[in-house]
């Protein structure tokens, strides 16, 4: 009798997210300490204001000019809301660390659930681990420009870091993120709170200051209506094809909002706060991202000079040259450009740290359900900090391996970006499609519920994801050669082919998807 009263009291005091977790068959193992603001900070840091736009801005601008780039952000933001709203509804119903992979298993039903969760888990794992690589590469690229400008620019004998040093910077950033993620989650959450203010304040300063500092600014008609292809630079003369490629910067930037879902087992009131964090992240990035693109584009001094290999930044990083032209033209000094580049580099640092956090949570969740070789190793939590430290270091090791071709191949970033986007965004498609076709009577809604609107929203979201994944498989430069070949289709075909072969030959016999660790009598998913 006393025991039953204690249990009843415990249930009444239980967090709403933990109650739903128990209903789904999982006991609370991770510490549930994160507030809405901390969860939003990590989600926002994973998307990041600068890290998607900055590295691809130059190439996207070259394809079809400023108008296509500027309006492309608006178009992509519009369709991203469909994906975010569909995911927010599912997150509200399934507040688990496994997120997409767990969602896919339960929404697809007992027959198709194991295959759906298998595909989703591996797509998401590939995307997140490659995401660590994109942040490390872009962060190293920014640091390379900082070092060059600090030592005298390309024209004045400045030091342009060679490939071996670039690789060292890439590895160094990855190891730092893994080291920090080995500590308690509260450390990461604290750093990510710094991150959100760093990006909001830093982004506001750059967006407002850069056009004011520039000696001249482009006209509104140039920014919003100028459209021109550059076949001499990209090899692409087809206008529709150029527009499609110019949208890549926006499609690469506007995802990562599922980071909030990975942390729901550690978030208070996750069934409510998880969806709020997802949608808030999209809203903030949509506005700030467009403002950042406009600030860069209005501040262009000489379009053709941005790509000149003899310019001050060696033609390696278009945003760095825009910053240099603005500050050097006004003050005859590159100090302001260096400070702004450091703000941007900080965004890459925080973004890589957050993606490492998310990647480790997905690997931990998949290991907990026996879906990865040597699962018993990767599912272990740090005895003191209660974080999946082994999974953290596995993700870091694979990310470093992805970066090794830097020494010999010139299109590493294109390939890693494509792999990251297709894996990460492709993982969204599985649970969204399952939610669209499932019988409504089998779905137990959370506080955020779409009702009859869920089917058209999920349909638009699914089509947009399929389109996004397709365009990242396209060649980005012509003529195609070993230096310009986008080898992502080959890498993904081999990787996913092996994963599916493993499923057909062996995994389908034993992999059942998420494994419950407590009993439940709940009849709905």
Structure class: mainly alpha
Characterize the biggest β-sheet: none
In total, how many beta strands? Answer: 0
Question: Helix amount, in percent?
Answer: 55-70%
Beta content = under 5%
Count of helical regions:
22
Q: Do you know the CATH architecture? A: Up-down Bundle
Quote the distance from N terminus to C terminus.
Answer: 31 Å
Spell out the helices and strands N to C: HHHHHHHHHHHHHHHHHHHHHH
Anisotropy-based shape: globular
Instruction: Give the integer mean of the pLDDT values.
Output: 81
Protein name: Amino-acid permease BAT1 homolog
GO molecular function: transmembrane transporter activity
Subcellular location: Membrane
Membrane topology: Multi-pass membrane protein
Q: Concise description?
A:
The protein has 525 residues and is mainly α. Helix content is 68%, strand content 0%. The chain has a single domain (18-24, 38-509), classed as Up-down Bundle (Amino acid/polyamine transporter I).
